[in-house]
Amino acid sequence: LEFKCSMVCGKTLNCGLHKCEVTCHQGDCSVCEYVVTQKCFCGLEERVVPCTALNLKVTSFSCGAPCTGMYACGVHKCELKCHDKHGKDDCGLCSLSPKKKEYCPCGRTLIAELLNMERTSCTDPVPTCKSVCGKVLACGPEDQPHRCIQLCHVGSCSGCPSSCLISCRCKALKKIIPCKEFILYSAENPYLCLRRCKKLKTCQNHRCRAVCCVDEEHVCMQICGKKLNCGIHKCDRLCHVGQCSRCLQASFEEQHCLCGQTVREPPIPCGTPLPPCNQPCSRQHSCNHPPMHNCHAEPECPPCTVLTQKPCYGAHEIRANIPCFLNDVSCGRPCDKKLLCNVHRCKRICHVGQCLVNDISCQQPCIKKRNLVITSVAFHVTAILLVLKANSCATEVIITCSCLRKSSKMPCSDVEKAYQKLLSLKVMEDNHSNLLPCDVECQRALRNRKLARILNISHPDAVDALSAFLKNKLKTNYKDILDVEDTLIELLHDLDAQPNVTSVSHSFPPMHSELRRIIHEYSEHFGIETVSYGQEPQRNVVATAKRDVSYMPAVLLTASKRYATESSISSSAAFAPSKTLSPISKNFSCVGSKMQQLHSEGKALKRGLKEPLMSQK
User: Fold this and answer.
1) Are residue 427 and residue 348 in the same domain, yes or no?
2) Cα–Cα distance between 492 and 515 in angstroms, integer?
3) Handedness of CA 606, 611, 616, 617 (dihedral sign)
4) pLDDT digit string, tens, across residues 438-495
5) Where's the R3H domain (predicted)?
6) Spatial separation of the C-alpha atoms in residues 69 and 522, rounded to whole Å
7) CB 51 within 8 A of CB 18
């Protein structure tokens, strides 16, 4: 049965000085928790040690500093380190006293053997022998330190003239240096190499950059400094792996919403947002509409979405159903504001700001007329000159010959000069005078048109209107042109066979640029549109025949014996003809005695003819 009283224990502790102050307890008393202050023998340093029986016996200690006292002789200073003076004011008997100094400095020979008389004072010189000093120096290996090689001498030994091997702190570098440098290094001041450590520290983020590093665990001593989850305070731990811990700070004051209607009681962890409030927002808003959102902690309120009426940029009209927060509204109409030139009006869609941005002047063409304007001038019977501007006008205008076959461009001012010259010479009545006279080819074309009008033939100049490129290629690429011609005729036939469609397309296979040009230029004489697609070498042409636009030419290129002969037929393997087309045989018949025209019984329906034309008798 255990029984405890309420009295203090009072037993002597292990130090033998203090008593146990704990209430009556079972077992041994605890260790004395008091501390004892000790001073060094020279009185320069103090230290605090636990109160134990051993520490109570020792009242002073040696700090290791050189003693500053004097020997009893009063002449020489003490050569010892901080030591106990045993209650005296001096440091005892002088080390050079005849009573203590019995041998020479090297310690091999008695002074009595070197002197004829005895030394009586510490100030008497100490004799030396002829032996080598041999005292151990601070340099050299630990197992074989260097020794003084001078003869027996008084005082400290001079520097060692030898060299010794030294290792850096991390043992990565070994070097032989003079002994006078070797003694400068110690455990407190080690020899360091220039090698920098590159190992990762414990944070796994930074690398150790210490010189001659000997650490086994490279502890990162940087402060983390990252913001905690509260977004206010920073992590004060040493740089670490993983996420920072939660902010442990808290507020012990009430937390109110912005309107003050809702309160959150403390303690409130750091970073906690304001409490949600169901009351309408009480902030000052830019409009007079009642707020449609609750009290919030965001710095800006949501935009007001009440539908209102607002004018557009140019005040052209009042737009309805515009949210209140929208201040920029465009009606989509032309701006039509007068520009700075006071002549033109802005053609931009209803916009904000100035009509002319970046200080750009009006770029619209001037609408003011020149001093002299000629609308039309007639030369010969049907020649018409469209003169746009005169009086040194540099604009190029188109002039034509009498039959309108040839045309050319000429500056408007030159046309005006020529016109004035004709007026001055009074030759306007002369039908043979012209700026661009007709030639023999014009007369031939006019004659063909008259004959075609009699025979009811459309497009009589089909062959003559062909370019020189097609005429030349007809001699070298007859087979290719024939395939293109059949395909275009088949395309027109497909368009006629489908009355419900407005256009029909055909895609030619990939081919080189020369054959694509043949298709483009020859399709113009059928009224068929062509477009090239793709990249070389897979670029191809797509031809589209449109109703009421495309037509069958009266004379086909391959039907003219003036530009093609049987001996000039050559084959080109640029592309294969359409497999869906069947060979078509052409028959030639004479029309009159002066003009030949191609007719084909197999193509009569494709051209939209009711029956093949017959030779006139």
Assistant:
1) no
2) 21
3) positive
4) 777 777 777 776 776 566 555 544 444 677 888 888 888 888 889 999 999 999 999 9
5) 478-547
6) 126
7) yes
Tell whether 556 and 465 lie within a shared domain: yes
Please indicate, yes or no, whether residues 472 and 572 belong to a single structural domain of this protein. Answer: yes
In a domain, 263, yes or no: no
The answer to whether residues 532 and 544 touch, using CB atoms and an 8 Å cutoff, is no
Are 469 and 546 members of one domain? yes
In degrees and rounded to multiples of 5, residue 240 shows phi and psi of: -135, 170
Residue 482 within a domain: yes
Tell me which residue of 177, 209, 213 sits closest to 192, measured CA to CA.
Answer: 213
Q: What is the pLDDT of residues 192-225, one digit of tens each?
A: 999 999 999 999 999 999 999 999 989 999 999 9
Q: Are residues 499 and 556 in the same domain?
A: yes
DSSP notation for 177-207: EEHHHHTT--SSS----SPBP--B-TTSSSB
Token reading at 232: 């206010």
Contacts of 215 (CB under 8 A, 6+ apart): 197, 208
Q: Are residues 348 and 384 in the same domain?
A: no
Tokens, residue 582: 């069947």
Domain membership of residue 512 (yes or no) is: yes
Q: What is the DSSP letter of 323?
A: E
Q: Which residues of 541-559 are buried (b: 16+ CB within 10 A; e: fewer)?
A: bebbbeeeebbbbbbbbbb
Beta strands in 21-82 (DSSP E): 35-40, 46-50, 60-61
In this structure, the strands spanning 35-40 and 60-61 are: parallel
Which amino acid is it at 602?
G
The CATH number that applies at residue 472 is: 3.30.1370
Which stretches of 149-303 are DSSP H helices? 179-182
Q: Are 486 and 498 in contact (CB under 8 A)?
A: no
Q: Residue 579 carries which DSSP code?
A: T
Tokens of 328: 């920029």
Please tell me the total count of domains within the chain.
4
Q: What is the spatial distance between Cα 113 and Cα 127, in angstroms, rounded to a whole number?
A: 10
